[in-house]
Amino acid sequence: MEIIRDQKIVQDSWRHIEDGDPVPESGDVTVSLIRFGAERSDLDARSGRDGVRVGPDEEIDTIIADLGKLPLIAVTFPKFTDGRGYSTARLLRGRHGYTGELRATGQIFRDQLFYLHRVGFDAFEMAPGKSLSDALEGFSDFSVTYQSSSR
């Protein structure tokens, strides 16, 4: 699958594993925040990188101690109108100093990319059927900003 990372279209090596599905013994995977907490030792024992998916209604406090070991945190946007993920990104980058890949997933559209990038997201899984090439233009939709940025 292709995604946008660092304002380029790239192939993605990560697989999202749903709760209840077996976790492969190798490869890069993301699991839910709940599963990460419950199966941390099993995840550490496998070969491959482990990432976490965070929903809009989930608290990130449980992973703060692990931020230095997490190469990917994927923040889910279930609806275009749900902006709680912006706050999650701002907290992770600003307050907690997270330096790994911060990915926006779900209902992500071109209109949001400029603002998502400013709060700290550096990777994007666009909504199904959306053109990644067209979405790249969203990073340059605005030339003037009024608020501070995590960048």
Care to describe what's here?
There is one protein chain. The protein has 151 residues and is an alpha/beta fold. The protein has a single domain, classed as TIM Barrel, CATH 3.20.20. It is built from five helices and eight strands, in the order ββββααββαβαβα. The protein has an eight-stranded mixed β-sheet with strand order 2-1-8-7-6-5-4-3. The chain is globular and about 45 Å long.
Can you give me a brief rundown of this structure?
This protein is α/β, with parallel strands linked by helices and 151 residues long.
Name the descriptors:
151 residues; alpha/beta; TIM Barrel; eight-stranded mixed sheet; 5 helices; 8 strands; 25% helix
Strand line-up in the sheet with most strands: 2-1-8-7-6-5-4-3
Order of helices and strands: EEEEHHEEHEHEH
Name of the CATH class? Alpha Beta
Low-confidence stretches: none
Structural class: alpha/beta
Write the topology of this structure.
Elements: E1 2-5, E2 8-11, E3 14-16, E4 28-32, H1 33-38, H2 40-45, E5 50-54, E6 72-77, H3 84-95, E7 101-106, H4 110-118, E8 123-124, H5 132-136
Parallel strand pairs: 3-4, 4-5, 5-6, 6-7, 7-8
Antiparallel strand pairs: 1-2, 1-8
